[in-house]
Write a structure and sequence with these properties.
Elements lengths: L2 H31 L6 H5 L10 H7 L2 H32 L7 H13 L2 H11 L6 H8 L11 H28 L4 H9 L4 H12 L1 H16 L3 H6 L11 H11 L3 H28 L4
Helix pairs in contact: 1-14, 4-8, 4-11, 4-13, 5-8, 9-10, 11-14, 13-14
């Protein structure tokens, strides 16, 4: 082994060890638990542990509440991912404009929610969405619209939670898009403008292809993040009302830590992991077909 190879191994080995301990070992452990009936009785005495094979997975497929959680998670992702990426890209394009002043200040303010404690921001949003004294209902009252029970009505609980989630996470993608836009050669826009291309044509044929890799990265991270939606419904609605904001992650938490059915909870985790990997592969393939990579 060459000296350069040894140096590279010395730098990467700590990361590989940490990744193995933090990610690989727990994943393999969850895979093993998912084929057992590990519960609170097995936790007290391992002799109570039984191998059930694919029984947990079969039971999940027969559980209506699991499919309800899958539907809610799919709805969160289907609405939240385009909303988060769209608002992030629009904000980045606005901040990239030469007419906007104090750009570092705006970026800092817009990125702040992403690094702010979730519980603190969730409590603030609970007051904003409050039925009686919430700021949002007060704004609606000025337009002659009656109060809305945002978090207490199954019809509005997901949109209300999504507003909070998008506000909380869009700052990260905004910074990614801002950095990508800074790398787009100004000469390309000038050439397109001289050829008679309008604003939309320049965005479609110049900006989007140039920031394609960043767009793909944001899509992959956003899909993975929305598939793992848990904190926001847990703090805002506790999965309610009427389980309207129950997600797969929340269902996994209930099975594993409320009912101590660790085998079932691990099976849910493995299914969610598989779904995330499959969707990432599909997104990457689409990105390559569009020559974004």
């Amino acid at each position: 082994m060459t000296r350069q190879a040894r140096a590279g191994l010395a730098f990467t080995l700590p990361v590989l060890i940490a990744t193995t301990v933090v990610l690989v070992v727990p994943t393999l452990g969850a895979l093993l638990l998912s084929v057992t009936d590990f519960d609170i009785y097995a936790l007290a005495d391992l002799r109570n542990l039984r191998f059930v094979g694919l029984g947990n997975y079969a039971e999940l497929l027969r559980t209506p509440l699991f499919w309800h959680a899958v539907g809610n998670t799919a709805l969160f992702a289907a609405i939240g991912v385009p909303a988060a990426i769209g608002t992030s890209l629009a904000t980045a394009l606005l901040l990239n404009s030469a007419t906007v002043r104090w750009k570092p200040v705006w970026r800092l303010m817009l990125f702040a929610p992403d690094v702010t404690t979730l519980v603190a921001t969730a409590l603030v949003w609970r007051y904003v969405l409050d039925t009686r004294s919430g700021l949002l209902n007060y704004a609606l009252s000025l337009a002659g619209i009656g109060p809305v029970d945002w978090l207490g009505d199954p019809a509005t609980s997901i949109p209300a939670t999504l507003i909070f989630i998008v506000w909380k996470v869009f700052g990260y993608n905004m910074l990614v898009f801002t950095a990508a836009l800074a790398t787009v050669p100004h000469e390309l826009h000038e050439a397109a403008r001289l050829d008679g291309a309008g604003m939309w044509a320049r965005f479609r044929h110049v900006t989007l292809p140039a920031i394609g890799p960043a767009l793909l990265l944001a899509a992959v991270l956003s899909v993975g993040g929305f598939l793992q939606t848990f904190d926001e419904p847990y703090v805002m609605t506790q999965g309610g009302p009427a389980q309207s904001t129950l997600t797969v992650m929340y269902f996994m938490y209930d099975q594993g830590f409320t009912w101590w059915n660790m085998g079932m909870g691990s099976a849910i985790a493995i299914l969610l992991f598989g779904a995330a990997v499959a969707l990432t592969a599909v997104q990457t393939r689409i990105g390559r077909r569009r020559e974004w990579l």
